[in-house]
Design a protein that fits this description.
It is an enzyme of class 3 (hydrolase). It catalyses: Hydrolysis of terminal, non-reducing beta-D-mannose residues in beta-D-mannosides. The protein is α+β, with helices and mostly antiparallel strands. Among the domains are: 104 residues, Immunoglobulin-like, CATH 2.60.40.10; 91 residues, Immunoglobulins (Immunoglobulin-like), CATH 2.60.40; 78 residues, Immunoglobulins (Immunoglobulin-like), CATH 2.60.40. Helices cover 19% and strands 31% of the residues. The strands form 13 sheets. A six-stranded antiparallel beta sheet has the order 2-1-3-9-6-7, covered by helices on one side.
Amino acid sequence: MEINDFELLDTEVGLDAAALPAAGWLPAVVPGGVHESLLAAGRIEHPYADRNEHGIRWIEERDWWFRASFGGPAGEGRARLVFHGLDTVVDIWLNGEPLGHHENMFRPAEFDLTGKLGERNEVLLRFSPPLHGLGMSVAGAALQERLDAVFARFAEDPAFASLSAAEETPSEGTMLSVMPVASQRRKAAFSWGWDFGPRVPSIGIWRPVELRVDRTAVLTGHHIRTHAIAADGSATVGVLVEAGPSDVDAGLLARVVLTAPSGRSTTAELPVSDGRAHRMITVPDAELWWTHDLGEPARYEVAITLLADGEAVDSVTDRVGLRTIVLDRGADPEGGNRFRFILNDVPIFARGANWLPSDMLVGSVAPERVRALVGLARDGGMTMLRVWGGGIYEQDAFYDACDEQGVLVWQDFLFACTDYPESDRTLADEVAREAEYQVKRLRNHPSLALWCGNNEVQMLHGVAYGNHEPGDWGYEFFHRVLPDAVAEFDGRTPYWPGSPWGVDAGEGVAAVNGAGDGDRHAWEVWHGVNFGADARTYDDPGDARHYRRYADDRGKFISEFGIHASPELATLRRCLPAGQLYVHSGSFDHHNKDSLKNKHDAVLRIVTGLPETIEQYVDFTMVSQAEGLKFGVEHYRRRQPHCNGTLVWQFNDVWPGFSWSVVDHDLVPKAAYHYLSRAFAPVLASFRRDGDRLELWLSNSGRAEVTTTATVTIGGFDGTEHLREDVTVTVAPGDSRVVWTGESLELTADRYAWAEGGFPSNRLFFAEIKDIPFGEPGLDVAVTRTGPGAASLKITAAGFAYFVHALTPAPGTRFHTNYLDLRDGETATIEVTGLTDEFDPAGIEVRAWQARG
């Protein structure tokens, strides 16, 4: 039975429960939280609009009380009250008596109520301020002092110089100063503001509340794990069933039935002993789970029945995938070690992005929103999402959607960007319990590819201390507690100590984000400093931050890299007041949490020119992001098999603002999303220029050899064709190589290279966008209704049309492709869904690139 009819009240901190007033209670949003409840009651303005974030800071400084009444269970049995998610510091009473205390957002709180319930019962919860009772830890203070000194040296680097005199407003209580305190409590790190989002720490009952009554033994867990795939197509599968209470397992039997998508079934019966039943079984003609680009993400129906003396007493159903996943760390022929995932014995090039919570108010995110985002990732050609360590363990809908749609999950444990005082025994106990719970919860998902210890903890510790030796900073968590939990409760999914992480004797302490081993975060681009790819220095901040620096990166797996961009203007209009819709207005800069606020200007000056209007700012930053990520992905994919993954920072947004996301908070894809969807195609053609020499590469990330005819054209924007050659090419799976070379070519700003064939067409420009004479293209657009809420756009170009895109008429509208290049006379069709049935065809606006006039 779920309990969700809660009321809410706020008081000063520390008020006794007996002193609570009878009046003044508000309806509470459960699951949800305080902010959602206050918004529903009209007590606060939305924190995402304008600069309202500042006006709600008081919420995190009050006590918040939740209460609900519920009836007692009918009949006898073991009664348990389960809070699936409490955020974060909470005391609980039942019928006026203390029930318990809890302070971990990431694991349930469960209480045995057997014999304690009446016909009517009241549960009362007091949420204290999330950082209540904490001070700066010794480890945190030491780290902060050292990092302050490092950042002071960084500030002298020209890469940090601002292009103009745009004023920076210091933000009191930023994440860098709060994290050394917040690290002592198990709450999402991004709560305290990050360089992509506001300080809006969620508070309250963020997952369901359930009263369970067990009248006999029950199933408490299961694990279906694939150990091997044999040459004859059969799979060796380990089946684990857990039941409790363990003192009543005499005569218990677990029956497990696996049913394939084709309908074939495999049955096993396992006697339960000491609360566990385990057996290795063989599944003939196994239908394997693949990522969507390599095959079908086949899933088996699992039915588990617990029998007591032959009578069914409990049952559970699940869906699992049969697959093997290995992290290959073998020697790389070019030097160093590989970092490569092998799925069902097939090496893969992981293509995807970093996943953030889809809202600051995590408790009220609807499953439909999560599924829609995963669908966008899959439709964008992504095969892996990294659940970032500063966020949350996602709701079930996320992992289910990844299973269903064939998208792998890199799962960080939730530690980020600061030292963690492992000597705090309360914290250490919570970490161990949390790890056990989450590993057991997620281990059956076939999409789960990696457990990772943290985000950037080792990297920052190494920057501050010059080593990664054991000490009171989380070393035990990342190198013993978490891997032990993965080994004991999962046993098949690889574990990795952190992101980034690497060990290479030649690179020393810098190997943690180096190019010789492990994964790396490529932040030379955008931040403009050396993070391990090269040691160049630049006098101009634009050159230091420019995306051409990706070409120097020899990393083995790029788990973060990104460039800022604005969302569409329609999204900005929903969060900025009309009077603030101009570049660097107060509200505009408030929605950019990075520093400097004008950091992108130095790059825009080179790539597009500086924008003069907000409309230009939207387009220019989108161009900079899209062209930059395209350039980076093409470089990394040409390095396959030495590089084996690119995860863009970041996929989605926690609020409407300016960030590195490729899908904004309204779920509207930016230009970069569509560029990436083409760069992530299983077979990619890309050009590499070296002076007057031009190479065409073909990168094959599929399972089969590819043979095709590639047509290479060098054309002029005036319509002249300067070169046209056909070449028949064959590329093995997992390989990337040069398939065509042109020497002594005239590669000037008024020309471009174009490749087409059995792959998405691609092009290379020979100058920055602002210096290219595109001309003034004409667009002929025909809109045809194709069904309820659906239309087809047929676009024909007169002249070379760059950055051709349809603007989103309303949130929820989807374009199957967008932001295209069309040569003179070419036609493209864009399928549109998510429109209202009454949509006006004339209301869909299509534009091409317009340079600064």
